[in-house]
Target: SMP-30/Gluconolaconase/LRE-like region
Amino acid sequence: MAIKRPFERLVVGIALMASVESTALAETALDEQAVVEVAATADEANDKDDATGEEPTHKQSALININAEGLPQASVQCFCLLGDDRLLAGCSGAKNEIRVFDDQGTYVESFDLPVAPEAINIAPDGTILAAGEGELLRLSADGKVLATAESPHAAAIRDAKEEVRKQTIEQHQEQANMLPQMLEAYDSAMKELEKQIAQLEEQGEDGKDQLRASKEMMESYKQAKEQMKEEYGDNAKELTEEQVEEMVTSAIQYKLKVASISSDGEAVFVACGMPAGYGYAVWKLTPDFTDGKEIVSGLSGCCGQMDVQANADGVFVAENSRKRVRRFDPEGESVCDWGKASEGIDGFGSCCNPMNLAFGANGSVYTAEDTTGRIKRYSNDGKLLSVVGAADVVPGCKKVSIGVDSTGDRVYMLDITRNNVAVLSRVNPDPKEPLANATSASGNFLLKLFGLE
Model:
């Protein structure tokens, strides 16, 4: 079977999980049954003196459990907010569906989908855009499928089959050469998981859900390690033509995935993998999914993620591997970009960030970072306006989709590992001046942000 990501990322990803997940998974989980509100409300926050930017504007106050009581277990893959602040969660499991929750986090209903959802968004006209397995869909607000079409990059990928074949064979050889490092990375990850499991067993009932998840992860690591040894070890046989064809088919299926979908009302934009190599491209289509053309190419992303969000100000891309946000016009011409590698508030930290984007009032752009769960707010030309706060998410290189409600008082972040959405509620008004001008004298800002002071 083909390993579907560059082998270097596999090793780095395993090592990262081994080093950072132990702390997060060992902590007592927040209550994931229903939304639990904090006492401070947005109204109380707005009664405070003007914010200086030295405090985050929001703090995590609740969790929305996508697997609410009475619902079958499913894996949430993506989410977005409707204009009335209802939450839509794209789920896969026993069936593919969109689960709908009201603005208080209470489950309302589900819409069946013909494909496993990989991306979901709301168009300006209130219709739902969804993508999965190389297909694009438009649904009405009540879940009726209005239109479907093949993603525009699908034909290009099929036409590039020979390039994919060459790349797949080369990657297989590279992975064989990297076998010792990969096995060492799995051993390290399993050692950390053993510690987690021991800690969670001591927690009893409080840690049962994460204990189950940790044990399942341990089994998957063991199986993957054995598969590695079988495919790339000393006793591995030369690839047969049948195996090569299977690997190419698997690689093509992976490349068919749609990382994100968005619309400015005039067009639909999708981000997806390029036919050859590991880069990403943005395609532009008409609202009825026709006349697709590639407008941006060569974007660098990690872990299958490349978030594109469009509005009247342009097309914004979270180019996570290059630590920046890029802004294009609707034809793909560069307008501006911002960001740098930094753990401080002036940049984006961890492995690959920003991972996701969302829009707020007055065209502001919210950025989301995996591992730390940090959310920041920028002007559409990259001026840092405020640090929103940090959600408690399981660390790792993964999708952390965000949404902002109609008032700006609630911000939501997906925790794809725990199958929930964290809710951050306002505790301070937005600063009147950009944060970059207001925090230089505060040496304890990061401590305050992460609740360490």
Observations:
- The domain at 33-76+256-449 is CATH 2.120.10 (Neuraminidase).
- Residues 179-203 form the longest helix (25 residues).
